[in-house]
């Protein structure tokens, strides 16, 4: 079985899961040659006894369209996370969690998976796009920002803060980075 890169984006109402909620998340499953195998998205009910973080909500007030998108038809987290695990299991390959930044997105997805399903199809592994860019560009981590990445790595896809749009965009970016790395003979 080959690897399937599960590009994932989350939208939250605070910096950490538990005290705050994951409002929405989405994944786009890619092969290494950038074939989009499928997508998954869900809007979630907020956690019982959790509350929004004031700074996060201040930011959300500047994103009314994205806020409306992540609050449309929310479902219980247990239901959404079970559907997510089933969706990943339906893919023919080994899932690799991919995010930008993985440290934030994986934290929420892993916490929700363990809390509501009791398992993670990713184990403890998450691939960070920015860290991969650091290796491909042979630069320092803080220099591996999007503004320093080659323009050919970017497809003309929107970054809207709607989880599915952003998961698709960052998955295409990651696949373009993989291709560049293979072409340079450093893979």
UniProtKB/TrEMBL annotation:
Domain 3'-5' exoribonuclease Rv2179c-like positions = 39-172
Q: Which InterPro entries match?
A: RNaseH-like_sf, RNaseH_sf, Rv2179c-like
Q: Which Pfam families match?
A: Rv2179c-like (PF16473)
Q: What is this protein called?
A: 3'-5' exoribonuclease
**Which species does the entry assign this protein to?**
Caldimonas mangrovi
- Lineage start: Bacteria, Pseudomonadati, Pseudomonadota, Betaproteobacteria, Burkholderiales
